[in-house]
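Job type: complex structure
Entries:
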Amino acid sequence: MTEQRMPGFDQAFARGMTSRRMSRRNLMKLGGATVGTLSLAQILAACGEGTSSVPGGDTSAPGATMPDYGAEPGPTINFANWPLYIDQAKDASGTKYNPTLDQFKEETGITVNYNDEINDNAEFVSEILPQLQAGQNIERDIIVVTNGQWLTALQKNGYVYELDAARRPNFDANAADWARDPFFDPGNKYGMCWQSGLTGIGYNTDLVLAPITKAADLMDSTKCPPNSVGVLKGDAPDFAMITLGIDPKVSTPEQWAEAAAWLTTLRDSETFRTAYTQDYVDDLNAGNLSATMGWSGDILYYAIWEGYNYEFVLPEDGALLWIDSMLIPVNATNPAGAYALMDYYYRPEVAQTVTEWVLYMSPVPAVQALIAQHGEDADDDLLRATAENPLLWPDEAILDQTSLGVNLQTDEEIAEFSSIFDPIWEG
Amino acid sequence: MAEAADAATLREATDAFRSPPKRGDRRLARRKRMAAYAMLTPGALYLAFSFIIPLILIVFLSLKSGGLLSGGYSLTWEFGNYARLLDQYWDIYLRSLLFSGTATAICILLAYPLAYYIAFYGGRWKSTLFLLILVPFFVSYVIRTVQWRFILGDSGLIFGPLKDIGVLPADFHVLQTPYAVIAGLAYNFIPFTALPLYVSLERIDRRLVEAAKDLYASKAQAFRKVVLPLSFPGVFAAVVLTFVPATGDYVNSQQLGSPSTFMIGQVIQQKFLGAADQPAAATLSVVLMVGMLLVALAYARALGTEDSTLAAAA
């Protein structure tokens, strides 16, 4: 029944999108509670650092360097990633392990300390910045950050190592076109995609007055009841620009103002309820929201696994695409090992194992056929459906419907951007 | 004979006071003094490390300039931060004061009768009754606030049934309005109000009330002229302890509010962890801290007793 209402979606797909997305965006909904404990260390670190670069202005990666990737890799790799974002299995004794990491260890002898510690780009990067500014080793060899100003900050300040384009045979052979040479990281100079996903609209079929198909429906009182529409603060600017037909990647301050005006209209419309940083799902489940900007995984998890009457749509006007990149922070202990591991994940059979578990958009398109084959061999409908899901293997039509978010390049741009968008949510 | 002996004893006794302390006494006095220092030092060191040094660092941090994409922030004595951010956020400061002031008033109105009853009529159940007030606060602050979202939900525990029986219109809602935020603040900070009120009411000498009644004061007069003034130090402490943290709070507005209830604590949190703009966060924090200090001093001055200042300090 649910499946009929959701053409193109299936449980396996939902499980994956959801399991990870849910956790990574929502697990830390109480993250605010940790602020107090973080701040002192951060302030101390921030005050101890002596920055020498000129404030303002577009400085391109001052100290960016390339380590010797040909060197003998170290015995361990510290890998910081988002929760539930890698293949997992349990052995006979019930201990969890990551098959692809174990296989890597078997092949190379390198132990990977995998730590799912990243719950929010802003929070994570804010946390490591003071140390990076002070030129310290942040004790992580790989970090995974979404495209946007946090990634830009790491690139521009030379806080991540350059990658050696000559030393990633699997990436060269297998990466999807959209994962190659992304506009925010030309030539994949600093990063390689780990996984990718989409932001659209989720709605409660019991509460909306008519099905939602486009972004403007969020402020349409014939479709959404009063006080029942949620907004995601972080995604809202890009979402509004995409709605207005503006490409966020090349947007101008005038267009930001247009998008801000659209969001202000939404905020002031009687349908609007509130803006969230991440914990909108609680209000959706409590019946306080009829429709909201949302991450597909969250909505589908509750729709399919928990039996809520939710739908997830890519708005007609377009949806937001995001790409999470693997990066090597400067002064990392084991860059050679880290780079080898990053390229290892571009081997189709390795990427397949990851995708069958996390069910996100894989940067290795060959995985689709492998999963289809696996589905036939194992006679598993979920795997077959996974291999056929259009949102996991976006074709040109779907990719055309999506855009990547804005990529602010200077402090002045960030200041202007936030001076345009922040006041909307500060009442 | 007997008189002489008495005089001798007396002289001996007074001499003991007059004569310089013996060596051993001096050593004892010094040891006592050292003991006082020894007892003060750990606390003082702790305060210096955990409070004074960070405070100084925050002031320096607030005078930095720079940006995320240009290599971070450096100390340029950027006093302009203060003017710029005050200009940008003065209305949010005012809103925070308004919300926490209202919440404090609610807390006093609720907690005073409660503390009064427990202190005067609690008898042997006093401690138990007071503990009952504190029991919910053994649960994490954030969790309690999140629970309120379910309690106050549009069709939640309270409003759901009321809407079902038609007492409330279907589109009635409290969550994500200023009412929810103020109610949340009042709920979360009420122990800070109740505790000092209870302490000051509990130590009022009951005989004073009896004396007032002996002098033909009515119950109400005895309360107004005796109990109430004597509990002022407690009221003062309760107001300061409730109002100050409530003004800087960000959890309630974040969990229960909407853009139109944005409070200064949220701005600081957002600047610090959402934008990595530590100088802005530090500037806003210093303004908040100094502002609250001034408000508290003015309040102490207006209320005016040494006792109340002491009570606030206690």
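Summary: The CA atoms of residues 181 and 249 of chain B lie 10 Å apart. The first strand of chain B starts at residue 64 and ends at 67.
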